[in-house]
Amino acid sequence: MFLYFWREAWRSFRAHRGLAVTSVLSLTAALTLCGIFVLFDHNARQALNAIGDRREMIVYLKDDISDVQLSTLTDKVKLYFGEPTYVSRQQAWTELSEQLGDPALLSGVEDNPLPASLRVRLKPELLNFTAMEQAAKQVLEFPEVEDVRYGAEYVRRLDEFSAGMRATAWAAGGVVALAIVLMLFNTLRLTLLARRHQVEVMLRMGASDRFIAMPYVLEGLMHTGLAAVASLLLVFALQQGLTTRLAGLTFLPWTWSLSFVLLALGVAWVASTAALNRILRTIGS
Amino acid sequence: MFLYFWREAWRSFRAHRGLAVTSVLSLTAALTLCGIFVLFDHNARQALNAIGDRREMIVYLKDDISDVQLSTLTDKVKLYFGEPTYVSRQQAWTELSEQLGDPALLSGVEDNPLPASLRVRLKPELLNFTAMEQAAKQVLEFPEVEDVRYGAEYVRRLDEFSAGMRATAWAAGGVVALAIVLMLFNTLRLTLLARRHQVEVMLRMGASDRFIAMPYVLEGLMHTGLAAVASLLLVFALQQGLTTRLAGLTFLPWTWSLSFVLLALGVAWVASTAALNRILRTIGS
Amino acid sequence: MISFEHVTKRYGERLALDDVTWRMEEGECAVIHGHSAAGKTTLLRLITHETQPTSGVVTVGTFRGGRLSRSHRALLRRTIGVIYEDFRLLPDRTVYENVALSLYIAGQHLEADLHPKVRRALHEVGLEAHRDLLPAELSYGERQRCAIARAIVNRPALILADEPTGALEPKSAAEVLSLLLRIHREGAALLLGTTRAEVANVIGGRRYVLEDGRLRDAAVAAPAGAAAGGA
Amino acid sequence: MISFEHVTKRYGERLALDDVTWRMEEGECAVIHGHSAAGKTTLLRLITHETQPTSGVVTVGTFRGGRLSRSHRALLRRTIGVIYEDFRLLPDRTVYENVALSLYIAGQHLEADLHPKVRRALHEVGLEAHRDLLPAELSYGERQRCAIARAIVNRPALILADEPTGALEPKSAAEVLSLLLRIHREGAALLLGTTRAEVANVIGGRRYVLEDGRLRDAAVAAPAGAAAGGA
Ligand SMILES: Nc1ncnc2c1ncn2[C@@H]1O[C@H](COP(=O)(O)OP(=O)(O)OP(=O)(O)O)[C@@H](O)[C@H]1O
Ligand SMILES: Nc1ncnc2c1ncn2[C@@H]1O[C@H](COP(=O)(O)OP(=O)(O)OP(=O)(O)O)[C@@H](O)[C@H]1O
Ligand SMILES: [Mg+2]
Ligand SMILES: [Mg+2]
User: Fold this and answer.
1) Could you tell me the pTM of the whole model?
2) In CATH, what is the architecture of D2-87+155-230?
């Protein structure tokens, strides 16, 4: 039984080799697009985690605090907000000169105007805009603190970016699924139309819809499977090519790759079954 | 004669409405991609011209030059290199404070360490990397000049960018042309395969290849024409949508639009004629 | 097994069958003789449910009238072997595959079962030597033989034969008809439509004349065997 | 007009035509009578250059032997009207359009010219009433009539008829044959292949018997007219 269906699928695949090739190519294109997206999403998540480390709060200290005050403050900050690093006035000055690029520019300045500060690497649960704002207010209450800076704008943008990323992920996934459905629908329609006469005869010989459709469903799965594997290879090649420029671009873990292929096959199965049902109904009696 | 061909083309168009729609849609997709590219290329060219204005050279002046020396230098620079603007030490200081963002940071600095400078908006013919390097060397020879800065890296990038832009333009054009050719080839092949029996019969009735092919060529042109117009409309919609965010994004001039459509039709004509010749040969005797 | 009750079939304003009432029992044999365009094929199509009557009821086996569901229609058709006037072979399958398809559709998938049946059917119509040719590579008469092999390979309960000897010269025609009669004697009901009196004579059985859509019963003829070679 | 010189046609190891030498003049009429699979269709296909002989030379009109170019082949075919055994109508065109196509292909595009010719041809085969039906909506005999109309509408110099009455009952068959004979008398050459002796008798003209690929000249028969109804 099953052997018969596979043989028929293989026959159809060979008989419409041109159609099969085009179908596999366009499916590969769609899936590669999707794969590239997944790749970047995957890497963006990793990058976001890394960037998260840099979401820091800078606590400027009053000039006249004692070492004891400093160490109590450091302890409190450590307890409630995150890992503090002390930056002395001298260090701040050196950093500024380096940032300006031309050390000569500040050579005329005799007195260092910069305050000392604590750089606080925030706890993960504080890594969003509202929590940070809250934390900043609390820190400002301490008497030893002159001012607090945090990348409010920056963090907001990062939050928006990752939300946008996730939305785009869904949208792109949806679009690609739709594209696959449309492409399979059309390929199957054309295959069946090119064999309309044969399908009619088989219906007249008493073949059930399932009997007629099964080889084409299998063919659609073959196309999709080939395309999914091909697109993963393409994405892998892309990753290998880009990794020299975008250092640290990693490939998808194999669980992702597998689910990618399985998902594509799932969409293909549903699409082709639905398509064939409709097409057989239009071909008729 | 011609009427007959159009009628046949129309018949085929209607008979394979699904195929026609898919064909038009995929052609539209390809052409829209191409159109978006042309739109951005067009706008990038305009933007590059505008950006060119900002490719300036900064000539730092020695602290001890006289007004006379300054005005001779200004004249010479104006003659050979471009439009100079004088920036006094005071202005430079103000700008630096603004750039640093926090005016308090520099409040402790009593003596302004910055030199005066001439900002030179370069002549158009100097607007490329090598010419600028040359110019910088020459300016450095003047005794009044302390140092010269110019956006060497920036200009090099801009040059690379516009060269890359042009290369991408050609590549994208080629890819889209290829895609159109493949798509038309495939659509026509499928249309003819779905009508293989009919084509065979017509060949046996003594129809010439041209007689059989002409309606399909016309059909291919119809698809392409529709797709080209549709994609222009899409690109227009895109431009209208984006113009609020990317202010100054302008639509293609009508000459470009027209050539876009004509070029697409030309590619379609050549592709479908070639395709049909090949296909008819495989269908046979 | 088959019964038509006041069946009328119109195509637009063209009347193909006009108030036909008629029945046929299991294992019976009947001939419908009529000129071209009399409505023979229309009548056979009503039996296979390829088309629906404009009015009246067609009952075939346990399937009574109305529109059948797709799966019921398929089920019904699997019990009938049809020899179409235009053969309806699958152009992309060899003679062997065309005949074997009938068995696959009937749910027989074991090569060991299948192979002898197909060979026997091909032997019965004399096409063993052509088993690997495509229909387009057969002569017209050979194509008709292939269509017959496909219809009988599964030994269906009912054989509908629409001008099954149209492409054959008298000698081959006689052979084919005696093959059909033999299968009928093995138990299958046989309904044969033809424009030719000599074919009707050979078959014998119940004989109907179809003229411009009206069916007339022409008594039961003795199953003759002589009149065949006549022309 | 047509000449075969020692023409042999093999399909693989199957010998379809065996050293056939034969000729036919312009305006002549000939019948090839042979059993099914004798090689009749193969012979007609050699004339239309649908296939090439394995050895020997086929000359048709001014086109002598060898492989013709695609455009020459098209040119040749436009002078021949072929009635195929399997009709080869275009399934997506109405009867009228099928017949008119013949004229379009011959380069006649003026409705005013075309319309009366198509109508006359449809009238001659008795299909006026069916002009707007698709082939699938015709009875089998009507399809054959449509194929005949298409072959004769352009009054070609040569008519090749491959079993042109296979789907018709004796009365219609006689009508069709007399139509073909009338067109022959108007000047067209007529070459008819058939498995049926009665058809060969009606046509008269030069008569050949094709048996297992060998062509035998069976003397010239008087253009009879009586033997037709015999069945
Ligand atoms: N689908 C259809 N649409 C319109 N008319 C039809 C259709 N099918 C058949 N007819 C008409 O019905 C009439 C009877 O057709 P039918 O095919 O039953 O004849 P038949 O007895 O089988 O003749 P033949 O021996 O030539 O095959 C014909 O005039 C035909 O044109
Ligand atoms: N393309 C082909 N490939 C292989 N064999 C072929 C091909 N065409 C014809 N034959 C074989 O050649 C033989 C003669 O075929 P042909 O069609 O000429 O017979 P015919 O005289 O027209 O018979 P009929 O009256 O049945 O149509 C047949 O045995 C057929 O199987
Ligand atoms: Mg019929
Ligand atoms: Mg033949």
Assistant:
1) 0.80
2) 3-Layer(aba) Sandwich (3.40)
